[in-house]
Amino acid sequence: MGAMASFDVLPDSIACLILSKLENAQMVAQCAIVCHRWKMLARLVDTLTFESFKLLEKKLDKTRNATCLEKIVTQMLLMTHGIRVLKISYHPVVWPWIPNDYFSEDKVCQWLQHVNTSLERLTLVDPNRVKPQPMKLLHLTECKKLQWLNLCYGFIPEMPILPGRFEQLVTLHLDLIFICDSALQKLVELAPMLEDLKLNSCKGLRTPHLTAFKLKCLEFANDMDVATTPITVVAVNAPNLVTVSLCHVEELVIDGFTLQNLDLIWHVRPTIRELPVLENLHISGEAWALDSVTHLIRLGTNLRSLHIDAYFERKYPIQLQSLLRHLQELVSIHIGADFFECLQTAGGAGAAFMRMHAMTLPRLENIVVVIGCGNNDCISVIATLLKCAPALQTLRIDAGQLRKSMDNVMFFTNLLGLQRNYPQVKVSLVCPQTLV
């Protein structure tokens, strides 16, 4: 290879790109002391990551606090020019966190002021949940190229009066932030280009009403160990919204005209007018009202994937054919044990009506059902699904919850009969060893 293998023969642009790919800023600093050229190259690096677990060697030394990381960041950051991607993460070694052990606002503002003409992506993990830092937000609006922002452990009870806006901000992720409804609403209003908004276990929210005309993806991911009080209502005015994912939100108010993906965990009372283009509906968690789930299914006329793994407060029979017969685009369906228990095939006068209006799911290819009780109704539902799905390829039955009883033993006998009648379908079965 000779001289061609030497790092020194690389042009500055390629060498800087390689240094920008290093795992953390400490490696860049180590490279900078190799020689004069490498020191100059380190100044041109446009991506830096400061991670306390990697930069503070004695992880269990309580004297290694936020101030230690501040000095490292300041020393390294002020040596560079034109940082585009910056990640600064401080994770205190004591749990719960040491009081007042977080970055000083002056230092954070100094960092932002140094990079405000070039910064495009910022991740700031700062364990401050007790004291507002309005000047930090002010300096963030001065980063005119900022497109991606992730803040963790902040405290934003209200938004300060800001002279500027987040003109280029497309993605905003807030993790473990204390933020009130009005502050979140104002923050979203200040980002006219916002497309992706994610809030993970943020306290302080009760009834946020969001207006974001460019927004495409909205997620409220609440860890109940952190966010003990559910959000009462999330109301969204976003005419381009494509994906919504909500966890532990009591009510969703949205028009739904552009929604393609809807993922709901824990009971959400939907106030939605229409879901004409919805393709994927995923419902799981506890405390659901059965009529909320059936309402969403009936709205989703173009569903391709339906996943219901919810637990219901009160169960009652639902006629399978009347619930699913409009889903002509359905390709995949997952039916959890509670929901499967509610499904019934048409009987009596209903059976005569269904013979005249037979259900067909022409695109259905994959079915997963979770069985809690192996009675005759269970077999009837599976048989109906097999009969109405001419394109069906796989049927997976999870019967791991079944216990030894005569009904459950007969279930497997009847299932073998169905399998013989539909040899083109690959049937897989999970069940207790004692029932095989």
From TrEMBL:
Domain At1g61320/AtMIF1 LRR: 101-338
Organism: Physcomitrium patens
Domain F-box: from-to ranges: 8-42
Protein name: F-box domain-containing protein
